[in-house]
Amino acid sequence: MRHVASRVALIFLALGQYAAAxxxxxxxxxxxxVPGASTPGIHSNLSVTFTLKAPDARTVQxxxxxGLGTGPFSMTKNAGGVWSVTTPPAVPGFHYYWFVLDGVxxxxxxxxxxxxxxxxxxxxxxxxxxxxxxAIADVPHxxxxxxxxxxxATGEWRRALVYTPPGYDANPRIRYPVLILQHGAxxxxxxWTRQGKAxxxxxxxxxxxxxxxxxxxxxxxxxxxxxxxxxxxxxxAPAKDIQLxxxxxxxxxxxxxxxxxxxxxxxIPDREHRAMAGLSMGGMETLFITLRHLDTFxxxxxxxxxxxxxxxxxxxxxTQQGPFDAKTAYEGxxxxxxxxNGRVKLLWLGVGTAEPELFRSGIGGAAQALxxxxxxxVYFESNGTAHEWQTWRRDLxxxxxxxxx
Amino acid sequence: MRHVASRVALIFLALGQYAAAxxxxxxxxxxxxVPGASTPGIHSNLSVTFTLKAPDARTVQxxxxxGLGTGPFSMTKNAGGVWSVTTPPAVPGFHYYWFVLDGVxxxxxxxxxxxxxxxxxxxxxxxxxxxxxxAIADVPHxxxxxxxxxxxATGEWRRALVYTPPGYDANPRIRYPVLILQHGAxxxxxxWTRQGKAxxxxxxxxxxxxxxxxxxxxxxxxxxxxxxxxxxxxxxAPAKDIQLxxxxxxxxxxxxxxxxxxxxxxxIPDREHRAMAGLSMGGMETLFITLRHLDTFxxxxxxxxxxxxxxxxxxxxxTQQGPFDAKTAYEGxxxxxxxxNGRVKLLWLGVGTAEPELFRSGIGGAAQALxxxxxxxVYFESNGTAHEWQTWRRDLxxxxxxxxx
Lengths: 405, 405
Known about the structure:
Chain A has 405 residues and is of the alpha+beta class. Chain A has helices at residues 2-21, 191-194, 198-207, 242-264, 281-290, 329-332, 337-343, 357-372, 389-399, and strands at residues 28-29, 41-42, 48-53, 60-63, 73-74, 76-77, 82-86, 93-101, 104-106, 113-116, 119-126, 143-150, 157-164, 178-182, 215-218, 274-279, 299-303, 346-352, 378-382.
């Protein structure tokens, strides 16, 4: 964890410089605001001011946003009918939030909206002083392409977002490895580029030589078999229902998406040049799919993905995180550690230290049990961040450089 | 106008079939809803039901959406605290709307949001029965690519969205003509693909052989010179301020965007293979920029773009639509009709018949005056549609097939 500790030191150093350059009374518009909107505004100590004009409202609160502190925060109305509140200093990163206006959750007209919680949601980007790895920089940039394809598994037109690295068009003879990268529950295929800034993380890693040029593929992590009712995903569903929930998506990935990508882009279409990773639900999907298809994937990453030791259990998914038996978990995928280590180039598990205990103990416990059993893996903790995008940006920044070496 | 009349007949025929297949009591979720949301719901007669759960609210209305009829529509609350209203039959197309909740405009959590009015805005897609030209179909699809570039004119990183036609990657020796296509005021570079479905219109036109394969470039139609305060755009600004408002964007297009596109994509980088068009403000920008740069553009389209006969007038922009003097308008660009006709391959002006009188008389009057002066142009009316996206979808469907012939 040495690089995390030194990063934290750097952050505080930069934070001091940042604070010195501004006065506490001059909040800066958040980068996530619509153009011209002055709030949400970020103060030098990373507290955040929110406002909403609602002269006739009776109560307005700010809610959501794990990194904002222990809300909801009650707003107060001024003589002009504008409600406002300034939160305590926030954790740096990207925080979903919404107003509660006379009891109704509504978005902030001053914020861009992002797909989260199964709907459009406001969010505030609180800068992490000194963290440049996800900023757009004066380096060569890849493209993010919307690719439509017809899925046989679901019978629907689907849209994948595909990052092609800098130089892709200019070097038509070069072929590239592929990382399939999945969002979390309630989000969609736009999450990794809009909330996560995956394209800038990759641009920066590639420019500095820390990561190899690669293609990222971000698909919508939901699938219902053609003609079947929509599958439900929830912490209260029995673990065995994961087969229903993720089974159709498994077919999409294996039989529709990968062949489409390999036919449409200059990939290196073998397991040694194909990775899959995802956050939260996307991490669960990654473990579910990759461990069944080691002929297709050699690199595996689960970011804050709840561990499901027994895929056939009737216990609710949300409580089914232990004990982890390396012999039987995931249908026996780890039962022969030497064989697993020989076949899988990278197994990567990560969690934020401010995530709920269930995530930390589940993921940390699985990592420990797997290591004890002799399975080679990387376990990464994001210091001080919650079940939020700042954790997953750091995860990608750690994970991507380890791929395809 | 023969093809418009026959299209209207087809619409009524299809509408009858559509109505017969459904009962009035079964609204279909709008395509613009977030996944799983049942409202807004479209009835067989194209009336629209909206709902919002707000047990403690005192008043809730639906507002916005020219094509929805003469709102705002007051909603009524049921015993479960859910407010609802069903509007009269709507005009087919894409209609922005919002709720007014105890006096505050808020988005509908059941709707995707779209950038309009300078912020994220809900919208409802009311299908036009029989109109398949903007539907995703089982034809080869192009890609829509996000392209980041550094603008010297503004000193900022900008994002253009670039449609590359089907087969672009598979045919690395083919070069393509380019259409720069601009959104309207309050919208952004996402408008033409999210609201307008330009990519599917082009896919369908190309698949049927009606349009030649081309690259579309959609940029953000705002620009402020590096270090200068933000320019204002409004109907009450003097026409001469258009030079300030559009001047920086002119520099972006001519000196930053076009060189970037020509360097990054397989274009045919000459005036005979470059078009510009736009809707509303984007149409104004198109006429302002192209008529000053006929060495750069040979194809010009203005869709519902207010006409500004005298760019140097102190009259407010919004009232400055006539009289149109073909000799002096647009700095004399049309003063020699024979020379103009010899140089410009296509001048295309369009308006919806349900647009405000100012648009209809301004655009129709300019078209008449130009024709009378001997300027060759195409004048297109969209039957029954307002200053809305259905007009501009039809415009693109008429305009694109005429390009690069």
